[in-house]
Structures are given as structure tokens and as C-alpha cells.
């Protein structure tokens, strides 16, 4: 019997690979000769670097870069094999800015470009970049400037690197761009569909949570329209209405337009990178899960990518979680054959998230699931014998 175990982290309790190993132990206590494949899992958002680097025995790299409001911050990214894996939030994230200082007019993605350059200097040319949780709305102005693009005003002088500096861009000089960029590939984990500007654009939808006023949003939208016009004239590219280009304050647009980046669902990037399909296609059972299962689980969260592959090969999928949220039963209609919570009785949130409590409950639950699975297999064999 072959079982593929690929679960997202139980945030605050267990990392992805740790949870997977506990599940493996539980299965082996019930089926000693089972073949268990444990793979880390993430969806491109927070925790992706940690999950993949730890689970695949890569390494972490610390680098000091420019933070979202211009101060120095210590950022971290990971490398696994030939790939550099980056979360933009580690350099330009909203959590790096105190609430009273949040304002997308005054934030930049410059630090993200510095991380990319650090990876380039180390010989990496393949990138997976998660762009969730940004504090910015600079359409990648900061990142692109750090990579060698010069954005010029009407007098031919370089503009700044913050959201407010979009207002002064008149022309683009790409003659000094880092040549290694053209040698590189960028897969961008982007799980939103927003265009660059308009009612559903970057500023209108995400500006308020980043500290933008109504007046700020109107200005940022007008500058985005102007910026895309400059792009059309110089490069003949019309990406401003493509799905996802409004992600992270227009950073999706910057990657697609300037770096030939591919905007993809985070979970699809990760499952392909992990080569999960190869493991799943000849397995007997797949176990996935995350901290909470609810109706949103199948809308691009990590377990949805696993179940999509399993369904393709008609392999049963069981999902486990710490808690069960709103309309969780809908996930049965979307590819999860059965789901279970590991919480055995009512407890406080603090108790539920205790590491030892989670570890014990996770193992106990998976053992009971496997016992039921064995009963089903035995019943099937018995009925087959009866027919003979």
C-alpha cells in the first residue's frame, strides 16, 4: 500500500513537514509495511519558504535589504536545488510597517529587488516568488529600480522609489538593466484576479488596508493608467487588464511586463515543483489538510492542489485539520472524499494550538482513519470472495 501525505502547516502548532511525519508514524503503526511518501505543502503565501526549504532540505539565506518605508530590515529567502524561493512580504510586507505609518504613497518594493539581486549573485536563475501581504502600491517601481531600470521625469531625472513617485514618471530607460534578468525565469504565486486599475484594481481593492485614503486611491489609479500608457507606447504591451496584474499593488503587472514572469496559482506552482503528480498517480490513498478546513479550502488553498491531482487519477483523498469552518461540507463536492477534525472535545483556542496536544491528536486521528480504511478494504475483499 502506498500513501502520499502532503499537508500544509497547522499554523501556530506544527510546520508542514513535521505534521506529515507524525501522520506517517500513525499510518505505520497500523500498517507496518505501508510505503509512505511525505512531501511538504504550501500555497505560495506565508510559510511557503519555510515549508519547502525545511521539507526539501534546502537552505535559508539572510540578507539585509531596504524595508517598505526605507529602513533596513533583515529578510530571509530559501534555495532548493536550482531555485530561489522568495516571499515578498519578508522585505516589503504590511506587517513590517507600524499601523500608524501605513501609507502606500510612502512604501516601496525596492528590497524585493535587492533579494533577487542577492540570489542572482549566488548563481540562481530560477525563481518562485510569493507576492501576498504587501504594504505597497508602487507597481514594482522600487523592485525594478533596484534591478537597473531608470524611471525618468520630464527633465530626464530619475524619480524616487515610492508609490508617490509614480506621479512623476515620464519615460523609462532600460539600458542599464541587470543582464542576468533575461537569463532568469520567474514563477509568481498570485491568487487574486484583480486588474491593474479601476473599481477592482490594485488601489481600489487593497489600498484601504494599506493605509490609503480615498484621495490616495484616486491618485494611484490615475498614475497606474498613465504608467500603463507609457508601457504600451514603449513596449507595445497591453497587460493592464490581465488577471492578477493588480496583485501586491501592481507588482504582478511589473513581473509580467518587465521580467516576463508567469502569474500562476500558488498551489499549482508548489505541487508542480514538488512533483506531486508522480507520487500520487500510482498511490492508494492521499492525505492532505491544513489548520482549518472550510468552504474556501478548494479556492486555491494548498489542499485543493493535492486533491486536484488525486482526482485526476481517481485516488481517494482524506483531509484533516485542527478545526472545521463555515460550510466545510462543500469540499466534498470539490474533490475531498472525507474530512476530519483532530480536536477530540471542546477546548480553548490556546489549548487546541498547543504543540504536544496537536501532535497527540493528529496521530490518534490518523490511526483511527487508517483503521476505518482497513475495514473498508477488508469488506471489499470479503464481498469479492463471496461472489466467486
Task: Give an account of the 3D structure.
With 388 residues, the chain is α/β, with parallel strands linked by helices. The protein has 13 helices and 13 strands. It has helices at 16-30, 48-55, 89-92, 110-121, 141-146, 202-206, 214-235, 247-258, 266-273, 276-280, 302-312, 349-352, 355-387, and strands at 2-7, 35-38, 59-66, 72-80, 83-87, 126-130, 150-152, 171-173, 185-189, 262-264, 285-293, 317-324, 338-341. Helix 1 links the parallel strand 1 (2-7) and strand 2. Helix 1 (16-30) packs across helix 13. The two termini are 24 Å apart.
Draw up the topology in text.
Elements (H helix, E strand, L loop, with lengths): L1 E6 L8 H15 L4 E4 L9 H8 L3 E8 L5 E9 L2 E5 L1 H4 L17 H12 L4 E5 L10 H6 L3 E3 L18 E3 L11 E5 L12 H5 L7 H22 L11 H12 L3 E3 L1 H8 L2 H5 L4 E9 L8 H11 L4 E8 L13 E4 L7 H4 L2 H33 L1
Parallel strand pairs: 1-2, 1-11, 5-6, 6-9, 9-10, 11-12, 12-13
Antiparallel strand pairs: 3-4, 4-5, 7-8
Helix pairs in contact: 1-13, 9-11
Amino acid at each position: 500500500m502506498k500513501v502520499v501525505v502532503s499537508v500544509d502547516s497547522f499554523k501556530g502548532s506544527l510546520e508542514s513537514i513535521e505534521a506529515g511525519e507524525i501522520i506517517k508514524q500513525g499510518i505505520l503503526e497500523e500498517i507496518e509495511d505501508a510505503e509512505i511518501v511525505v512531501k511538504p505543502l504550501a500555497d505560495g503565501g506565508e510559510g511557503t519558504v519555510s515549508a519547502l526549504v525545511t521539507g526539501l532540505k534546502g537552505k535559508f539565506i539572510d540578507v539585509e535589504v531596504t524595508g517598505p518605508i526605507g529602513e533596513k530590515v533583515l529578510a530571509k529567502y530559501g534555495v532548493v536545488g536550482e531555485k530561489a524561493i522568495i516571499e515578498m512580504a519578508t522585505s516589503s510586507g504590511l506587517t513590517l510597517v507600524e499601523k500608524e505609518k501605513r501609507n502606500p504613497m510612502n512604501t516601496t518594493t525596492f528590497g524585493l529587488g535587492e533579494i533577487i539581486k542577492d540570489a542572482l549573485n549566488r548563481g540562481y536563475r530560477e525563481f518562485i516568488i510569493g507576492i501576498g501581504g504587501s504594504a505597497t502600491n508602487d507597481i514594482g517601481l522600487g523592485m525594478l529600480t533596484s534591478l537597473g531600470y531608470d524611471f525618468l521625469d520630464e527633465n530626464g531625472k530619475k524619480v524616487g522609489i515610492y508609490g508617490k513617485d509614480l506621479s512623476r514618471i515620464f519615460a523609462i530607460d532600460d539600458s542599464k538593466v541587470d543582464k542576468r534578468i533575461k537569463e532568469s525565469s520567474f514563477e509568481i504565486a498570485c491568487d487574486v484576479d484583480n486588474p491593474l486599475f479601476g473599481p477592482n484594481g490594485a488601489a481600489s481593492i487593497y489600498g484601504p488596508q494599506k493605509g490609503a485614503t480615498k484621495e490616495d486611491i484616486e491618485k494611484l489609479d490615475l498614475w497606474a493608467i498613465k504608467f500603463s500608457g507609457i508601457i504600451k507606447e514603449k513596449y507595445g504591451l497591453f497587460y493592464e487588464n490581465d488577471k492578477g496584474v493588480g496583485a501586491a499593488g501592481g507588482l504582478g503587472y511589473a513581473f509580467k511586463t518587465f521580467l516576463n514572469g508567469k502569474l500562476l496559482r500558488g498551489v499549482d506552482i508548489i505541487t508542480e515543483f514538488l512533483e506531486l503528480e508522480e507520487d500520487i498517480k500510482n498511490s492508494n490513498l492521499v492525505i492532505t489538510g491544513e489548520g482549518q478546513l472550510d468552504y474556501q479550502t478548494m479556492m486555491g488553498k494548498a489542499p485543493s492542489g493535492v486533491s486536484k491531482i488525486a482526482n485526476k487519477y481517481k485516488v481517494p483523498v482524506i483531509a484533516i485539520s485542527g478545526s472545521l469552518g463555515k460550510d466545510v461540507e462543500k469540499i466534498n463536492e470539490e474533490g475531498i472524499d472525507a474530512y476530519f477534525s483532530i480536536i477530540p472535545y471542546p477546548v480553548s483556542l490556546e489549548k487546541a494550538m498547543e504543540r504536544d496536544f496537536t501532535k497527540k491528536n493528529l496521530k490518534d486521528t490518523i490511526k483511527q482513519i487508517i483503521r476505518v480504511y482497513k475495514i473498508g478494504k477488508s469488506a471489499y475483499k470479503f464481498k469479492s470472495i463471496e461472489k466467486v
